[in-house]
Design goal:
By secondary structure, the protein is of the alpha/beta class. It folds into five domains: 2-91, Arginyl tRNA synthetase N-terminal domain (Gyrase A, domain 2, 2-Layer Sandwich), CATH 3.30.1360; 119-165 and 263-372, HUPs (Rossmann fold, 3-Layer(aba) Sandwich), CATH 3.40.50; 170-260, no CATH class; 396-456, no CATH class; 463-571, Isoleucyl-tRNA Synthetase, Domain 1 (Orthogonal Bundle), CATH 1.10.730. The protein contains 22 helices and 13 strands. The protein has helices spanning 2-5, 11-27, 47-55, 59-69, 93-104, 138-153, 170-181, 183-191, 195-208, 210-224, 228-252, 268-280, 319-333, 348-361, 396-414, 420-440, 452-456, 463-480, 495-504, 507-517, 520-540, 550-571; strands at 35-37, 43-45, 76-82, 86-91, 119-123, 157-161, 285-287, 290-293, 308-311, 338-341, 369-372, 378-379, 448-449. The strands form four sheets. Strands 1-2-4-3 form a four-stranded antiparallel β-sheet. 44% of the residues are buried. The structure holds arginine (ARG). Residues 123, 126, 128, 163, 165, 323, 326, 341, 343 line the site of arginine (ARG). Arginine binds at residues 123, 126, 128, 163, 165, 323, 326, 341, 343. Its main location: cytoplasm. Monomer. It comes from Micromonospora rhizosphaerae. It is an enzyme of class 6 (ligase).
């Protein structure tokens, strides 16, 4: 059923496919026509200019001959060679209208299911047990979830891997503190979500009390040795923390569930075999008593080779060994070919080294590949790392609660007709949406400033602006009691209608670009352009008051805009209330 698979609806690509053969004939070699949206016409190709030198002919002559040969009559109402040799293309209203009609009957809105579905592991969120989630975990959680949603929608098999920090030396002191406090007491304390005070109490004792330090050290040994009581206490910590994280994910509308926890501890049994295999492959070198691999791509500032330590001098395994075991598991057992690591940019170096070692060991070979989906920090209004008044990192729940409270208040004042329950629901959708969108709409490689005014504003490139555009369209249909007829003929006589149509048919191209780049600000920017084009259209073109057949055509444009906004925001993990 083609409607389940979706129809590719990429005008740029359609035009490229028509110009490419003509260019190649003229040039005698394959040529990419580089078709782009343009101010001068609808689309433009500048390829003749670059080609001129290569084949020694004037660019205008090339462009003219290309246009004589290219079969574009069904797509373009006008073509011309302009300036030094640009090709300008004006899309025919019929062709554009035909694409809009195809979109209207396509449940996938012009976004086909991938022709090459893969198993993709998305490693994201990954907080640490018995520690509060803070703002630093927000980008990983939000970007990772958008990646999982988008790739899944494109038909990939997505494995969500929440690489929980649930193992290592800090657990000695945490378990020892837990034993001191008593299981029942501690369970109580931890279920209130006050993970940080528990952690700090343990830390304070550890720093001040020599005997406690010694007990903690022995506790680590007991934990690694599989001591039953120790494991029970450890499980209590993990289980309470997981419950807390799930509550945060729920508040954040993040799709991670209890089944997606694949903590560091789950790789314990694989660490020995991983290091043994590295040894067998002759990749291990001893350095200061530790077992290391020296990947070819890593040198320090002084040109010295940098080691990846896979077994420490005390015989313990650490973070790098766990990540190697995870790669081997993901490609070997899960059959994944795309491994995504949505982790802050400070860990870039770590991952480069881990990938390089995994490649040497044969655990990461084409078509399998790994990508570090890095991101910058969230800054406060002062341009520094966001901190609480006490100078600590800001708890994620505190931030989310504030967002929801602010947005609920705004919802009440903007629309007094909303009942209390609906205002609360809108406040939640808008507050959480605003926080997520602020992360997703900026280039993830950069730091960005958390600015409440800006991100909650109904103007500009914000979630509330897009949500408002959506609810406004829905209210047109609700108030008039009409629905759009997907089979209506499409008329695009007004420039504002044409401009909106071009945005609508561009959804597929944007989604497939983001599938590759995981740069969600391109999708956000697209949705913003779409909503802006809709506003201009709605200002200039009456919908309900228009005569048929224009009225039906405009209703289709309205409905499609709402559907694309809704789907696009859904991929970003943002809700679209029907009323605001
Ligand atoms: N728990 C780690 C941290 O808080 C992040 C883990 C990222 N994922 C991984 N596979 N190493 O820094």
């Amino acid at each position: 059923d083609p409607s389940e698979i979706g129809v590719p609806m990429d005008l740029e690509k359609l035009l490229t496919d028509r110009l490419a053969p003509a260019f190649s004939t003229v040039a005698g070699v394959p040529v990419d026509p580089v078709v782009r949206r343009s101010q001068r016409a609808d689309f433009q190709s500048d390829a003749a200019l670059a080609l001129a030198r290569r084949i020694g002919r004037p660019p205008r002559a090339i462009a003219t001959e290309v246009l004589e040969r290219a079969q574009v009559a069904d797509l373009c109402s006008a073509t011309e060679v302009s300036g030094p040799g640009f090709i300008n293309l004006t899309v025919a209203e019929r062709a554009l209208g035909g694409l809009v009609s195809a979109l209207a009957t396509d449940p996938r809105l012009g976004v086909p299911v991938s022709a090459h579905p893969e198993t993709v592991v998305v490693d994201y969120s990954a907080p640490n047990v018995a520690k509060e989630m803070h703002v630093g975990h927000l980008p990983s959680t939000v970007i990772g979830d958008a990646a999982a949603r988008l790739l899944e929608w494109l038909g990939h098999r997505v494995v969500r891997a929440n690489h929980l920090g649930d193992w290592g030396t800090p657990f000695g002191m945490l378990i020892e503190h837990l034993a001191d406090v008593g299981e029942a007491e501690a369970a109580q304390e931890l279920s209130m979500g006050d993970l940080d005070s528990f952690y700090k109490a343990a830390r304070t004792k550890f720093d001040a009390d020599e005997a406690f330090r010694e007990r903690s050290r022995l506790r680590v040994v007991a934990l690694q040795g599989g001591d039953e009581r120790t494991l029970r206490l450890w499980r209590l910590l993990v289980e309470r923390s997981e419950r807390y994280f799930l509550a945060v994910y729920d508040l954040l509308d993040v799709t991670l569930t209890g089944r997606d926890f694949h903590g560091e501890s789950s790789y314990n049994d694989l660490l020995g075999p991983v290091v043994a295999e590295l040894d067998r492959l002759g990749l291990l070198r001893e350095s200061d008593g530790a077992s290391c691999v020296f990947p070819p791509n890593s040198v320090g500032r002084d040109g010295e080779p940098l080691p990846l330590i896979v077994r420490k001098s005390d015989g313990g395994y650490g973070y790098p060994a766990t990540d190697l075991a995870a790669i081997r598991h993901r490609t070997g057992e899960l059959g994944a070919t795309r491994l995504l690591y949505v982790v802050g940019s400070p860990q870039r170096r770590h991952f480069e080294m881990v990938y390089a070692v995994a490649e040497l060991a044969g655990w990461l070979v084409p078509p399998a590949r790994a990508e570090h989906v890095g991101f910058g920090s969230i800054l406060g209004a002062d341009g520094r790392m966001l901190r609480s008044r006490a100078g600590e990192s800001v708890k994620l729940v505190a931030l989310l609660d504030e967002a929801v409270a602010r947005a609920t208040q705004l919802a009440r004042s903007r629309n007094p007709e909303l009942g209390e329950a609906e205002a609360a629901e809108v406040g939640r959708a808008v507050g959480i949406g605003a926080i997520k969108y602020a992360d997703l709409s900026t280039d993830r490689h950069r730091d960005h400033v958390l600015d409440w005014e800006r991100m909650l504003s109904l103007d500009g490139n914000t979630a509330p602006y897009l949500q408002y555009a959506y609810s406004r369209i829905r209210s047109i249909f609700r108030r008039a009691g009409v629905t759009a007829r997907p089979d209506a003929g499409i008329s695009l006589a007004e420039p504002a209608e044409r401009a909106l149509a071009f945005e609508l048919v561009g959804f597929g191209a944007v989604v497939s670009e983001v599938e590759r780049s995981l740069e969600f600000h391109h999708l956000a920017g697209y949705l913003h352009r779409l909503a802006t084009a809709f506003s201009a259209f709605y200002e200039r073109c009456p919908v309900l008051r228009a005569d048929e057949p224009v009225r039906d055509s405009r209703l289709v444009l309205c409905d499609l805009t709402a559907r694309v906004l809704r789907q696009g925001l859904h991929l970003l993990g943002i809700r679209t209330p029907e009323r605001m």
